[in-house]
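[recover] target loaded
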C-alpha cells in the first residue's frame, strides 16, 4: 500500500514505509484484509439480537424483507443505530462516573493524592446544581456536589439537573414536547438495551427517540460531568503551548506514552515524572531524562492542562511503538487497539494496562487505584526507566513536529475574544452579527482507515476558515489540526478569510480552537448555550449559524456525539454514512425529517470540501433566517474617515 494513500501526515507516511520494510502489520493492512467489508453490516440491515437469527434484509428487494420475527429494515437499522448510541453514551458517561468517584474520594479523604484545583469552577458548577455556595467551606460544597452528581447516574425520579440548568429554555421546550428530556444517565442507556431486545418496539421513530434521550444524557450529562469535574479536580485549562506528532519522542530520554481517555492516572504521572529521584534513576541508566507524551484523548487532557506534547492521534498508536524508543505505554480505557499487545511483543515497549475494565493480551496489568495514585504512577515510571536499557533494533523517529496552542474552554474563550476588560460573549456575537465571522463549526472525532488519515479533518477545517468560519475542535481531529500547524496564531494570516483573520489577529488566537478531548465536546454545547444567552442570534441553538462535523469518525462515541449535536439543534455532517442506508424510511428521517422535531439533522458526505460547502450553506441559511445577512451600504470614505482609520 502506498503510504501517501493511507495518510496525509508526513510522520505517519515515514513510519508506514518503515513498517512495510520491516514487515510489521498495521491497521491499514488489516483494513485491506477485511475488504470487501460485509454489505449488510454497512447498510445496517443484519440483526443478531436473538438466536432465531442472525437475519438479514435483502437490499435489492428480491430476497427477504423481514427477519424471522418480522422486523423490517427500518426496525433493524434503527435498533442497531441506537445500540451504537448506547455504547457511546455508556463509554463517555462511565468515564464521567469514574471522575465523579475520584472527586468524591478527594473531597472525603484527608490524605489524598488529588485535591480541588479550581475553586471558582467548583462554586459555579455547584450553584448550577442548586447547591448553596455562599458562606460555605469548599469542602462542604464539594461534598454536596459529589453526591448530587453521583445521584445523576441512577436516579429514579425527575430529570437530569444539568439538562435543565445549561441549555437555553427554548431548547428544553423542544425536548419536552418531543418527550426526550433525559431522566438519568444510566436509565436512558439501559432503556435502549431493553427497547432493542427481541419483540419490544419496532417503530423506527420511537426507537430513535430513545437514542435522542440517551445521547442527551451523554452530552449534557455524563460528558459534561466528566469535563466539569476534571476541571475542578485537575484545573481548568488555560491557553498553553504544546508540541505534536511523533517527533516529540526523544531517542536520548526514557519515553513514556500515556494513551486512552481518563486524566486520573495520567495527571498524576505528569506530576511525579520529573521528581529528582526518578530523573536521577533515569540518568543512572544512561538516559538524559524522562520524556512524557500523550496519545488520543488522554493526551488532550494533559496537554491542555500541562502542555505535555501529544505523540499522535488514533491511527498513530501502533506507529509510536515502531519508533523503537517508547519504553512504556500506559493505557486506561477506550480507543486502544488490541493489536498493541502483540505489537509490543515484537518491540521492547512495555504495554501496561491500568483499568480493571481494560485488560489486553500481551500487556502487563498494574491496576490503578485512586487512593494509591502517586505510588502507582511512580511504579509505572520506574518500569519505563528499567526498560530503557532493553532497547533493541533500529530507531526510527520521524523528525516531524508542530507547535500550537490548546486549552480553550467555555469559560476562557470570551476572555480571549473580548480582551481582559470585556469578559463576555458580546464580542463573539457581534463579530458573527457584523459578518466578520460567518459562523462557527465544531470539527471533531476520530481517524478511520477508510479515509486518508488526517486529510478529511485538515481539508475541511482549511475550507471552513478560508470562508471565515471559526473552528473549534476536539479529540483526534484537534490533534490532526495541531500537527498541520492550524493551532498556531500565525495560521490566521495564512489560511483564513479576511474577516476571521482580522478577529484572530486582533485577539491573538488561532483560527482553530482546541477545546479538549471527546468528552469536552460538552464544552461546545455549553459555549453554544452561552452564545444564545448573550443575545442577538436567536433564542435557540438551532437558530445559530453553526454546524458540526466528524470527517473521519469510527467509534460509537462519535455516533452519540453526532446524535446529541443533532438533538441540540446542530446540523452535523459525517463522512462515512451511519450504517442505516439499507433502511429507506429511517435514512430519510435521520437526514431530513428529524429537523422538524429537533432543529438539527445528519448529513453524509465523504468529500471534505463538499462537506464543508454543505456546512457553509447551512450557516448562510441560518444567517439569512436571523436577518443578519443585510448587504452593507457601500461607504465612500472622505479624508476625515481615512484619518480616523489610519489611527487604528
Ligand atoms: Ni473520541 Fe478520543 Fe480519538 Fe475518536 Fe477515540 S481517541 S474519545 S473516539 S478515536 S476522537
Ligand atoms: Fe432475526 Fe428478529 Fe431475532 Fe433479529 S430479533 S435476529 S430480526 S428474529
Amino acid at each position: 500500500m502506498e503510504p501517501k494513500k493511507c495518510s496525509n501526515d508526513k510522520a505517519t507516511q515515514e513510519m508506514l514505509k518503515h513498517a512495510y520494510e520491516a514487515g510489521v502489520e498495521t491497521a491499514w493492512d488489516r483494513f485491506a484484509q477485511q475488504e470487501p467489508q460485509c454489505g449488510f453490516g454497512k447498510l445496517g440491515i443484519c440483526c443478531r439480537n436473538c438466536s432465531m437469527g442472525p437475519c438479514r434484509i435483502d437490499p435489492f428487494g428480491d430476497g427477504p424483507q423481514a427477519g424471522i420475527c418480522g422486523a423490517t429494515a427500518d426496525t433493524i437499522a434503527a435498533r442497531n443505530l441506537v445500540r451504537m448510541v448506547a455504547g457511546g453514551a455508556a463509554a463517555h458517561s462511565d468515564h464521567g462516573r469514574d471522575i465523579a468517584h475520584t472527586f468524591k474520594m478527594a473531597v472525603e479523604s484527608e490524605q489524598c493524592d488529588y485535591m480541588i484545583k479550581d475553586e471558582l469552577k467548583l462554586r459555579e458548577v455547584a450553584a448550577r446544581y442548586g447547591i448553596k455556595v455562599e458562606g460555605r467551606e469548599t469542602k462542604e460544597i464539594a461534598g454536596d456536589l459529589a453526591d448530587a452528581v453521583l445521584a445523576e447516574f441512577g436516579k429514579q425520579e425527575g430529570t437530569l439537573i444539568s439538562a435543565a440548568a445549561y441549555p437555553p429554555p427554548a431548547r428544553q421546550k423542544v425536548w419536552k414536547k418531543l418527550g426526550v428530556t433525559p431522566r438519568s444517565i444510566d436509565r436512558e442507556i439501559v432503556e435502549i438495551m431493553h427497547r432493542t431486545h427481541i419483540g419490544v418496539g419496532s417503530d423506527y421513530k420511537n426507537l430513535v427517540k430513545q437514542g435522542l434521550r440517551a445521547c442527551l444524557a451523554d452530552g449534557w450529562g455524563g460528558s459534561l460531568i466528566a469535563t466539569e469535574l476534571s476541571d475542578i479536580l485537575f484545573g481548568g485549562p488555560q491557553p498553553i503551548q504544546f508540541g505534536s506528532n511523533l517527533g516529540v519522542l526523544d531517542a536520548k530520554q526514557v519515553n513514556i506514552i500515556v494513551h486512552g481517555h481518563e486524566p486520573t492516572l495520567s495527571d498524576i504521572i505528569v506530576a511525579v515524572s520529573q521528581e529528582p529521584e526518578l530523573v536521577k534513576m533515569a540518568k543512572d541508566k544512561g538516559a538524559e531524562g524522562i520524556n512524557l507524551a500523550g496519545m488520543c484523548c488522554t493526551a488532550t487532557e494533559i496537554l491542555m492542562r500541562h502542555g505535555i506534547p501529544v505523540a499522535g492521534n488514533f491511527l498513530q498508536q501502533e506507529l509510536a511503538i515502531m519508533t523503537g524508543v517508547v519504553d512504556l505505554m500506559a493505557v486506561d480505557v477506550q480507543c486502544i487497539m488490541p493489536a498493541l499487545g502483540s505489537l509490543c511483543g515484537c518491540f521492547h515497549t512495555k504495554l501496561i494496562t491500568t483499568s480493571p475494565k481494560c485488560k489486553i493480551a500481551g500487556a502487563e496489568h498494574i491496576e490503578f487505584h485512586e487512593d494509591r495514585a502517586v505510588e502507582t504512577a511512580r511504579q509505572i515510571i520506574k518500569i519505563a526507566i528499567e526498560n530503557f536499557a532493553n532497547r533493541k533494533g533500529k530507531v526510527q523517529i520521524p523528525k516531524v513536529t508542530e507547535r500550537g496552542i490548546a486549552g480553550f474552554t467555555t469559560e476562557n474563550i470570551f476572555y480571549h475574544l473580548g480582551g481582559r476588560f470585556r469578559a463576555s460573549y458580546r464580542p463573539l456575537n457581534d463579530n458573527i452579527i457584523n459578518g466578520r465571522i460567518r459562523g462557527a463549526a465544531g470539527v471533531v472525532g476520530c481517524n478511520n482507515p477508510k479515509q486518508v488519515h488526517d486529510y478529511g479533518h485538515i481539508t475541511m477545517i482549511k475550507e471552513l476558515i478560508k470562508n471565515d468560519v471559526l473552528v473549534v475542535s476536539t479529540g483526534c481531529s484537534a490533534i490532526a489540526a495541531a500537527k498541520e500547524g492550524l493551532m498556531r496564531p500565525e495560521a490566521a494570516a495564512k489560511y483564513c478569510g479576511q474577516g476571521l483573520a482580522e478577529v484572530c489577529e486582533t485577539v491573538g488566537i488561532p483560527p482553530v480552537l482546541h477545546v479538549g478531548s471527546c468528552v469536552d465536546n460538552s464544552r461546545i454545547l455549553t459555549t453554544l448555550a452561552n452564545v444564545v444567552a448573550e443575545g442577538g442570534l436567536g433564542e435557540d441553538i438551532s437558530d445559530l449559524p453553526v454546524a458540526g462535523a466528524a470527517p473521519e469518525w469510527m467509534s460509537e462515541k462519535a455516533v452519540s456525539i453526532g446524535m446529541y449535536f443533532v438533538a441540540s439543534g446542530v446540523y452535523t455532517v459525517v463522512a462515512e454514512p451511519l450504517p442505516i442506508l439499507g433502511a429507506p424510511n429511517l435514512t430519510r428521517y435521520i437526514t431530513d425529517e428529524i429537523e422538524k422535531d429537533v432543529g438539527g439533522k445528519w448529513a453524509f458526505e465523504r468529500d471534505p470540501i463538499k462537506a464543508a460547502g454543505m456546512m457553509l450553506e447551512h450557516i448562510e441559511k441560518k444567517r439569512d433566517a436571523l436577518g443578519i445577512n443585510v448587504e452593507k451600504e457601500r461607504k465612500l470614505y472622505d479624508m476625515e474617515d481615512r484619518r480616523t482609520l489610519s489611527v487604528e
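[recover] notes: The CA atoms of residues 410 and 523 lie 6 Å apart.
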